[in-house]
Amino acid sequence: MESYLLDWANLLLRWLHVITAIAWIGSSFYFVFLDSSLVPAADEKLRAEGVTGELWAVHGGGFYHPVKYAVAPPQLPPHLHWFFWEAYSTWMSGFALFTVSYIWNAGTYLVDRNLMDWAPGAAVAVALSFLVVFWILYDAICQAFGRRKNGDAIVGALVAVLVVAAAWLACHWFAGRAAFLLVGAMIATTMSANVFFWIIPGQRKVVKSIERGEAPDPIHGWRGKQRSVHNTYFTLPVLFAMLSNHYSFLYTHAHHWLVLVLMMFAGAAIRQFFVMRHGYKLGRNRHPAGYALVGVAVIAATIVWLTPQASEAAKTPIAQADYPAVQKVLAQRCYACHSGAQAMKNVHLDTPEGVKQNAQAIYQQAVVARTMPFNNATQITDGERALIGQWFEAGAKVN
Q: What parts of the sequence cross the membrane (predicted)?
């Protein structure tokens, strides 16, 4: 019953997390587009009010005319929309999903004893520390170098080094699947923290200054914009890390930390293309196709690098690739989780009927995707996977 309820919790939280992430990323992408597409206001009255940019757009049968004030409008409207629930709900639903999926059964899903043989509690504590420590170091880098000459480049380089170091540590301390998600969660936590600790508090200070009739400090707008820009470059790397858990060839590779780093770098480069594309259309910068080409080239090189090579065991015909031989493998490698009254996900592999019913799933999970046994906890060999493959391709007979 616990496994069944956890599956439902996982499904509903994943659904909620995707919905809120779409809302947050969508609004983030829109405002990056808006900032990059603004042109000087044509109306003298708007310029006199402090408008520094405007945009005309058509969508859904209507025309829209958003304008931007350099620091603050001369008077606040009665209804001011704030963008923060998207970020907070995305983080809360994501953390709840990570808790249900990995922390709840940390000994199985978070710990790989071939890497670190530590207690589940210790693994959970270290995993959570990734979220906190990365934010602290990132924030310190921004405050120390963000306002210097060439500060953006310095911050970008240092944060990139920090991400690489975190990815290396996570992939050497935790099970590969969990490590990829943990790095994504770490960066996503920093994105939400940017909103919670800097962007929204800065905006509230600006609003209070206007309400008191004081001139707002422009530093709040500058800092909020800086952290928002950082968030937009984090977005595609985070999305890749979150999607990666469905593809075992990524997180089971011998150098999976480098795979993660390369794909996140490709995502950031491609995001740079889309950010600068808006400015190019207005003649503000050269065509940014080079960034997209770099990102695509990195992805293509990674695909070539990860191309699987058939093992010698898979190439060698197996004389007795029949059910009795497969049953021995299942008994040694799979019965621990898929037998008896407590069989995981109600998948029984300890009877001929159960094996016949789940033959396709066995082949997909053990031979094609190689995701089972989970984290290869029972140390199934390539030869045993090949045996299952040959049995399935011969008709998956159980009698």
A: 12-33, 83-106, 118-141, 153-175, 181-200, 257-276, 288-307
